[in-house]
Design a protein that fits this description.
Distance between the termini: 95 Å
Number of helices: 28
Strand content: 5-15%
Strand order of the largest sheet: 2-3-4-1-5
EC number: 2.7.7.7
Enzyme class: transferase
Radius of gyration: 36 Å
Protein name: DNA-directed DNA polymerase
GO molecular function: DNA-directed DNA polymerase activity
Family: Belongs to the DnaX/STICHEL family.
Structural class: alpha/beta
Number of domains: 4
Number of strands: 12
């Protein structure tokens, strides 16, 4: 007859027990030193070995070979293993919890053991006993006969009355560690000749939530489901769990604000019977792992199978954004137990994360821009309105841009500079000003679009999330006090207060380029141009005048081409910078 794995592999000695080393060592020492207590209380989560250790301890107390207890060969040991020992009595308090049952137990306590040295009572789920039953047992547990040992086991010690707890030696069982679960499962699989993937073993250990019995039961079910190899997809299908890749896609949609795809995935998950609580737990775990990888890229704490997905789907977002999602999900998870609909709560949590990543209310945006305008000494209409929308109707310019698309003036490709940091530092020490040619700025303004500026302004509200990001923190910090003057399809012009700030941004664009940063924060690759407040004011005034005179230049077209071109060493620094960035004007103070 087939025997369930958790019964077949129930430990028979302390050496076979997984985890709980502190408890095992204490019980071993108690026997060696002959310091046997009259009552023990075993507390802990289900499947962590409470009953198994109680039986092994009982076997050791009655083993005839005291030096090698439990020997497994003497009559007492064999009777315990067969469940037929007359002096080891197991009682299920869930079904024998009344006063009458306890009084019957008390009546039998006074009789001497029939076979072994001790008469041992193992009372499982003792918290299920009634208050009357506890009170009836109280005096017996306090002063039992010398040959009697009580072992009480419970998953909820808070329901056991304090007067009982105070009369017992209490042992708190911990959840079995993930590594111990994996090791034990691998041993069982080898013994049973079960062909199983390493990732599937890991997932089973995760699903068991620290319970060895649960882990073996899950393995048993997977074995029955699969006729050959057990893969991670088989385990996920049986228990309704998303794959790591699917969770990565879900987070990617969350970060990119793909709300429809995000909600559809959650609805499909519930419709297919997936455990949404488990989904939330797995997402929290992956987010936590991504934060670990931020600080320790070579860590062995994250599974190699998870690293690729985390790096591809999770770590494209700044760490503060991930931390915000993590906090939101942890807060939502605590509310699941009283939620009328877990799906609604989870969807709301994700939507809050999407909305929190967007810009605040429009009134706050305008107020922020207005304050910057006043600080820069620029009149309100020039900044709070789009800088290239200085009249009520710009349809004429838009039409002009469309009609002249083929004749648009093409600006030389923007190349990525190989200028060293040392060179840039020298340039700063020489106090040179790197300024954009004003005619070129006007061309950029003509080619800009109000809608692009609005979208970029919304997306740039996430800039603060990147300040502590290892990869993009430097770029975010340079734009911290910048406001967007204009935006085109692949570029944006920002305004800052001082020449030093503008120079720093333009130098960084030359040195490394903002393309990767804008791809991450805007979702679009863009070049960043910077103007100081004086140049910005002058250019905007010129734009208004030339727009009224209809003498604006044709729109510029910025083509982004990443090239690793090394400038000729004999060229001067000025020549190198002009070669790499033709639109810049370098002016001596």
């Amino acid at each position: 007859m087939y025997q369930a794995l958790y019964r077949k592999y129930r430990p028979q000695t302390f050496d076979e027990v997984v985890g709980q080393k502190h408890i095992i060592q204490t019980l071993k020492n108690a026997i060696v030193q002959d310091r046997i207590a009259h009552a023990y209380l075993f507390c802990g989560p289900r499947g962590t070995g409470k009953t198994s250790i109680a039986k092994i301890f009982a076997k050791m107390l009655n083993c005839e070979d005291k030096e090698h207890a439990p020997c497994g060969e003497c009559l007492n040991c064999q009777m315990v293993q067969n469940g037929s020992h007359p002096d080891i009595i197991e009682i299920d308090a869930a079904s024998n919890n009344g006063v009458d049952e306890v009084r019957d137990l008390i009546d039998r306590v006074k009789y001497a053991p029939m076979q072994g040295t001790y008469k041992i009572y193992i009372i499982d789920e003792v918290h299920m006993m009634t208050t009357g039953a506890f009170n009836a047992l109280l005096k017996t547990i306090e002063e039992p006969p010398a040959h009697v040992v009580f072992i009480l086991a419970t998953t909820e010690p808070n329901k056991v009355i304090p007067t009982i707890i105070s009369r017992c030696q209490r042992f708190d069982f911990n959840k079995v560690s993930l590594q111990d679960l994996i090791s034990r499962l691998q041993i069982v699989c080898r013994s049973e000749k079960i062909d199983i993937d390493e990732e599937a073993v890991y997932l089973i250990a995760q699903l068991s939530d620290g319970g060895m019995r649960d882990a073996l039961s899950i393995l048993d079910q997977c074995t029955a489901f699969c006729t050959s190899n057990i893969s991670i997809d088989d385990v996920r299908q049986i228990y309704g769990v998303m794959t790591t890749a699917e969770l990565g896609t879900l987070f990617y949609d969350l970060y990119k604000g793909n709300t429809e795809a995000l909600i559809k995935t959650l609805n499909d998950a519930e419709a297919s019977g997936m455990d949404l609580k488990r989904l939330t737990q797995d997402m929290i775990s992956l987010l936590k792992d991504s934060l670990i990888l931020d600080r320790a890229p070579q860590t062995g704490l994250v599974l190699p199978a998870h690293k690729e997905v985390i790096q591809e789907k999770f770590m494209i977002s700044p760490s503060p954004f991930r931390l915000n999602v993590l906090n939101e999900l942890m807060d939502t998870y605590t509310k699941f137990h009283y939620a009328s609909s877990i799906l609604d709560y989870l969807e709301t949590a994700f939507l809050k994360c999407v909305l929190n990543s967007d810009i605040p209310k429009e009134s706050k945006i305008e107020q922020k821009v207005e304050n910057k305008s006043k600080k820069n000494g620029i009149s309100e209409p020039k900044i709070t309105d789009s800088s290239y929308d200085l009249s009520s109707d710009y349809s004429e310019i838009d039409k002009k841009e469309e009609n002249n698309a083929e004749n648009t003036t093409k600006i030389d490709d923007l190349k990525i500079s190989d200028v060293s940091r040392e060179t840039l530092k020298q340039d700063r020490n020489e106090d040179r000003k790197i300024r954009l040619e004003e005619e070129y700025v006007l061309q950029l303004l003509v080619g800009a679009q109000k809608k692009e500026r609005q979208i970029d302004t919304q997306k740039m509200s996430q800039n603060e999330y990147y300040l502590s990001d290892l990869k993009f923190g430097r770029f975010a910090s340079t734009l911290r006090n910048a406001h967007i003057v204009a935006s085109g399809k692949n570029y944006m012009i920002v305004g800052v207060n001082s020449e030093i700030e503008a120079k720093e941004i333009n130098s960084l664009q030359l040195e490394e380029g903002y393309e990767s940063f804008t791809e991450s924060i805007l979702g679009v690759t863009k070049v960043v141009f910077a103007l100081d407040s004086k140049q910005e004011q002058k250019v905007l005034e010129d734009f208004k005048i030339r727009w009224a005179e209809k003498t604006l230049p044709e729109a510029a077209e910025v083509q982004i081409v990443r090239k690793s071109k090394v400038s000729s060493p004999q060229n001067t620094k000025e020549e190198q910078m002009k070669e790499l960035f033709p639109t810049l004007e370098i002016v001596e103070d």
